[in-house]
Amino acid sequence: MTDGSSSSSTGLRVVVSGATGNVGTSVVEALGRDPAIGSVLGLARRVPEWSAPKTTWAAADICEADLTAHFDGADAVVHLAWRFGPTHDPVVTWRTNVLGSIRVFRAAAAAGVPALVHASSVGAYSPGPEGHPKDQAVNESWPTHGWPDAAYCREKAYLERVLDGFEHEHPGLRVVRMRPAFIFKREAAAEQSRIFAGFVPPRTAVSPKLLPRVPDLPGLRVQVLHASDAADAYRRAVLRPVRGAFNLAAEPPVDAHLLAELLGVRSVHLPVGPPRALLAAAWHLRAVPASPHLFDAVLRLPLLDTTRAREELGWSPARTAEETVRELLAGLRTQEGLPTPPLHPPRRRWRAGSAAA
């Protein structure tokens, strides 16, 4: 698992921000299992009572903590920390996601960290021009200006511009930008329900009997990726002397027909207008956290060409898109989780000794 990389006798020291979430828990596990890694420091606003190999924890808010002290002596920093809400107050998310990320970048440079691996996103990419085929995948040279109405895309795209200047100012610091598709795993299903729907549906709600049709909306075709496969790419980016951006996604793209097949129901064609209007009304009433602006962005996302990750990282996803979506659906049915603050399951307390803070 070392990818041919050299390391000291004690192994590399890696610091991971946002280490208790969907991707972070998988990344610290992947790093901890690699013999080239000597230790992992997981940073999070709230320290969990969940453990991973070779991992210690520190409470740190990236907007306030002395990050340079945490990064001192590190061989790499993996920056995953991100705040998805409140979607009605973009100033709050901007403070964490943009200003907090800039603090991470500057602290990594100040501490003399040799490598910074940053979690960008498919959401950073610009929509395709008029006439661009929806099934034509784009590589890492595609413009990254995001969809400006959606705060998530706007923040991811802004950090791409920040890193352009940062790399110019710090040529000795190896910067890697990961641009993954939507990332899922069973243990994160409840968290993602809370992020997008504002609640976790009852187990019986994830049933074909209650969802007899899947809406087939024009342009709604996305890519997904299992969190463990994303974590493997991050691990490889830490160990290999690579720079620049890498697209990450599994095949095939997920559309209404595939989702209907997985659920055992049928798809039905619908125009975008009615569901978009319904979502906008619910969002303005604060009934759901997912904004109509993010919905607009998803309809315009390009598909990702992952050739560079396969060739330069030696990476390929172990799970297909179908397997990943099946696991997400299973997670919604079983309502599992992990004893970390972001991934805690609904209406359930962990037993003493394993309870999350």
UniProtKB/TrEMBL annotation:
Taxonomy, superkingdom: Bacteria
Domain NAD-dependent epimerase/dehydratase per the UniProt entry, residue ranges: 14-243
GO-annotated cellular components: cytoplasm
InterPro entries: Epimerase_deHydtase, NAD(P)-bd_dom_sf, NAD(P)-dependent_oxidoreduct
Species, as recorded: Kitasatospora sp. CMC57
SUPFAM superfamilies per record: NAD(P)-binding Rossmann-fold domains
One MF annotation (Gene Ontology) recorded for this entry: aldehyde dehydrogenase (NAD+) activity
Region called Disordered, residue ranges: 333-357
Name this polypeptide is given: SDR family oxidoreductase
